[in-house]
């Protein structure tokens, strides 16, 4: 049997994967906080936020879960050197696009709170999701992921 050579990723790859893992953990925490939000937390919100949360369709939490858990599991896959990290990151990216696409087109959140308060962080989330997918694809192309 011929020997198999595994290409070792450079140190930056592992550092980025760890940062992605931390980002994913924060996302899952935010997801958990939203889906377990009780009446006291809702009462503490402003009127606009209460209306927003009341208007969320049931499928929204599923999409939010795919976005966050897909990113976290993709980061775990990246850390253990698995090429299926790209698939998980792609699912996460698609879920992020659906999630924020719905928020910005089906709600009045921008009109109520202003674009400066509502748009920047979702853009950062989308950019990081794109970066995660790009890093996973790069790792696969370089042979760092198997």
From TrEMBL:
<feature type="transmembrane region" description="Helical">
    <location>
        <begin position="117"/>
        <end position="136"/>
    </location>
</feature>
<feature type="transmembrane region" description="Helical">
    <location>
        <begin position="59"/>
        <end position="80"/>
    </location>
</feature>
<protein>
    <recommendedName>
        <fullName>Sugar transporter</fullName>
    </recommendedName>
</protein>
<keyword id="KW-0812">Transmembrane</keyword>
<feature type="transmembrane region" description="Helical">
    <location>
        <begin position="12"/>
        <end position="32"/>
    </location>
</feature>
<keyword id="KW-1133">Transmembrane helix</keyword>
<keyword id="KW-0472">Membrane</keyword>
<feature type="transmembrane region" description="Helical">
    <location>
        <begin position="87"/>
        <end position="105"/>
    </location>
</feature>
């Amino acid at each position: 049997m011929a020997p198999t050579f595994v290409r070792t990723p450079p140190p930056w790859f592992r550092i980025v994967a760890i940062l992605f893992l931390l980002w994913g953990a924060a996302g899952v925490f935010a997801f958990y906080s939203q889906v377990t939000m009780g009446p006291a937390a809702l009462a503490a919100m402003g009127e606009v936020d209460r209306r927003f949360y009341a208007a969320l369709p049931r499928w929204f939490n599923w999409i939010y879960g795919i976005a966050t858990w897909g990113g976290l599991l993709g980061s775990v896959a990246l850390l253990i050197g698995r090429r299926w990290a790209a698939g998980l990151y792609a699912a996460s990216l698609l879920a992020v696009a659906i999630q924020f696409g719905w928020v910005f087109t089906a709600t009045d959140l921008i009109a109520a709170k202003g674009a400066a308060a509502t748009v920047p962080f979702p853009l950062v989330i989308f950019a990081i999701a794109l970066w995660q997918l790009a890093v996973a694809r790069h790792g696969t192309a370089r042979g760092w992921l198997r």
